[in-house]
Request: fold
Amino acid sequence: MNSTDSIVVINAGSSSIKFSLYDGAALELAMRGKIENLYAGVTRFVAQDAAGAVIDEHRWSGGAIDHAAGMRFLIDFAQSHLAGRRVVAVGHRIVHGGVDYSGPQLLDAGVLAQLDTLVPLAPLHLPHNLAPVRSMFAMAPQVPQVGCFDTAFHTGQPAAAQAFALPARITDLGIRRYGFHGLSYEYIAATLPQADPHLANAKVVAAHLGNGASMCAMRGGCSVASTMGFTAVDGLPMGTRCGALDPGVVLYLIEELGMDVAAVQKLLYQESGLLGVSGLSSDMRTLEQSGDPRAQAAIALLVYRIGRELGSLAAALGGLDALVFSGGIGENSTALRAAVCRDAAWLGVQLDAAANHRSGDGVRRVSTAGSRVPVWVVPANEELMIARHTLDILEQQ
Ligand code: ADP
Reply:
């Protein structure tokens, strides 16, 4: 890897493709961008340099485009904006690696075929993650591609943390807890000891709070338990997902309310969480600015559930040495952090009000000097984690 070599990271969701470009062995961020509104409305593209200045923008006025057309556009864009760089590998965020992929993986036709068999485990995400891989194989087959899985970080959890209390014949079908947001937690696990070396072997609970939200218990940088389970709808209430739910509710919706699978799926994934409870919005900023009591009730429910999960995860760890906030809400909402820490005082958490309000966008400690449990904000950076994994795999070849 020399200074003109670069790694591209692709994070493709159901309606967007995000990309980042990292230069040289130091993986210096050079460029990032996204195509939004695939399939619906007006598809938009924007690319920015490392400082955030816009390099290029585009709108598809003729209507929305699909993943393949989006990838074709990105490859053309890259070719005209690489400025002498050589893309040596592409790393992809892939939501599910099943039980077999416990780390990043060089992708080929065989691995893709195996990942196709996991689509029923993540039908809303996995096909969109794999579409750009196929586009790259078709359009630039000489460039190595690496898959980085959101589940991989959790594969070493104790058996009890991975199990549902279901008959073995069901568990054997792969119906178990996997956990997600693993690349975010892995990045936090790598970053925290740099900020405070005492935390290298610590019992840490991290909360990744974005549109999707989860929490993870880590001991010595390894995942011990997580709030997300078989799918990414479990655990905390999220922007539009309900989080943990008595399975009896699903049976009731079907039997008594006559809802079919599609209606239940829509309710639990798209109409619940902050949006469902508030009846107003899935967006935390909007709710915080609203004077409507339903907005406050939605936030209060999220805070309550974070507190419950924190106690549960601390129990799984047998203690708590640090609490970490990450994701759009965790990094930016001073009020949410204050409420969670207020409720976690019993665990030895003491927030520093001034530090909590101090603006900043880097890794920072927001607890008092005397707080038995330090509280940190670590901005999420799954993309850099993917770039590091991709470089590692490249160097092993
Ligand atoms: P995703 O999971 O889609 O990557 P993000 O991590 O970007 O989502 O988080 C989006 C959430 O972060 C939204 O609910 C948004 O309102 C919230 N958020 C962003 N900035 C702020 C802020 N300054 N205060 C409160 N919430 C914020």
Q: What stands out?
A: The radius of gyration is 21 Å. DSSP finds 15 helices and 14 strands in the chain. The domain at 5-149 is CATH 3.30.420.40 (Nucleotidyltransferase; domain 5). The mean pLDDT is 95.
